[in-house]
Write a structure and sequence with these properties.
With about 140 residues, the protein is mainly α. It has four helices and five strands. Helix content is about 40%, strand content about 10%. A three-stranded antiparallel sheet has the order 4-3-5. Strands 1-2 form a two-stranded antiparallel ribbon.
Length: about 140
């Protein structure tokens, strides 16, 4: 589950909207949600693995910041959360392990953050933004 590639059984829609640095993360989420709605809210358009980790950390961060999502985005996040096992699936994901990109150390995901610019895992030792202007969440 900590692999960098999406792990849905069906191939992801091209281009995989959350991976890439061409747009701010919120805009990439918007593209993903619009594609999901245009595709009839198909389950094969829900993210898992690293993209889900980024999406859900972003979701929690924006809620804590007092910036609720529009109805479509909230529905997408809730559907992806359910598809990834709900609270139990989230806990299992957090117990997974991955390497931070800044030092190459292996950590449990609950101890890592993710850069919303490049979707690289970073550890607490980074101490600065990973990509210019991109938030680090998690």
């Amino acid at each position: 589950m900590t692999d960098d590639r999406p792990t849905n059984s069906a191939p992801p829609p091209a281009p995989w909207p959350l991976i890439g640095t061409g747009k701010p993360f919120a805009d990439r989420v918007g593209d993903l949600v619009r594609a999901w709605e245009a595709g009839g809210r198909a389950p094969d358009r829900l993210v898992d693995g690293k993209p889900f980790f980024a999406l859900y950390c972003w979701h929690l961060w924006t809620i804590r910041e007092g910036r609720p999502h529009d109805a479509a985005t909230a529905a997408y996040v809730a559907s992806a959360h359910r598809a990834n096992g709900g609270a139990a699936g989230w806990d299992a994901l957090l117990r997974g392990r991955a390497y931070c990109s800044c030092h190459g150390e292996r950590w449990r995901l609950e101890n890592l953050s993710i850069c919303l610019g490049c979707l690289e895992y970073v550890c607490f030792e980074l101490g600065r933004p990973c990509c210019h202007g991109a938030p680090v969440v998690g």
